[in-house]
Amino acid sequence: MDANMTIEGLKYMVLGMTTVFLFLILLIYILKLQAKLLTKFFPTKSAGVTSVPPVAAASGEEEEEIIAVITAAITEYKKG
Predict the structure, then answer these.
(1) Domains in the chain, number
(2) Is the pTM of this model over 0.85?
């Protein structure tokens, strides 16, 4: 009787795992089909390439001022 229940349990386990596996495979193919259909009916429009103007390098005085401001901000943050 105990061996019979073990075999039945294994059968149901295999059946359940097979069902889940097949469902996941089906889901993958449905998502791939959906992606193809969406790109077919709603193609993405490529944005034009825009160039960013170069930023001028800071002079020595500006760099020192920036460093001082950052240091002051960190000090205030650490004070609480």
Answers:
(1) 1
(2) no
Q: Looking at the domain assignment, is residue 58 inside a domain?
A: no
Question: Do residues 66 and 58 lie in contact, with contact meaning Cβ atoms separated by under 8 Å?
Answer: yes
Domain holding 26, by residue range, is 1-44
Per the domain annotation, does 72 fall within a domain?
no
- Give the Å distances, CA to CA, from 9 to 2, 14, 19: 11, 9, 15
Query: What's the helix, strand, coil split of the chain in %, to 5?
Result: 75, 0, 25
Mean pLDDT by 10 residues, the chain (80 residues): 89 98 98 94 75 74 90 92
Nearest 10 degrees: Cα torsion 63, 65, 67, 71: 180
Residue indicated by tokens 């790109």: 39
Please tell me the distance from the alpha carbon of residue 18 to that of residue 3, in angstroms, as a whole number: 23
